[in-house]
Write a structure and sequence with these properties.
Blueprint lengths: L2 E6 L2 E6 H4 L12 E8 L5 E8 L2 H12 L4 E8 L1
């Protein structure tokens, strides 16, 4: 049996050849929207960032995971 080893961080994960040869699932063709937000920085300053997501809730979740809950201010959509 052929085995392929993939490195993720410091963990080696064996991937069986049968798994690697399976066709990928069809991806959604939904267009992504661009959102802009002001982020509250730890030192008291602010910065503006953009993120692409399919909706406002997902954009906020992505930003809160990156910058922390409560630090995402003024999130709004800038383009479709």
């Amino acid at each position: 049996m052929l085995r392929i080893i993939a490195m993720i961080g410091l963990t080696l994960v064996p991937i069986h050849a049968t798994q690697a040869q399976q066709p990928q699932q069809q991806r959604s063709t939904r267009p992504m929207n661009t959102y802009e937000a002001t982020i509250q920085l730890p030192g008291g300053g602010q910065t503006r960032v953009t993120v692409q997501s399919d909706n406002t809730n997902h954009a906020r979740q992505l930003l809160e995971m990156q910058y922390g809950r409560g630090n995402v201010m003024n999130l709004h959509q800038t383009s479709r």
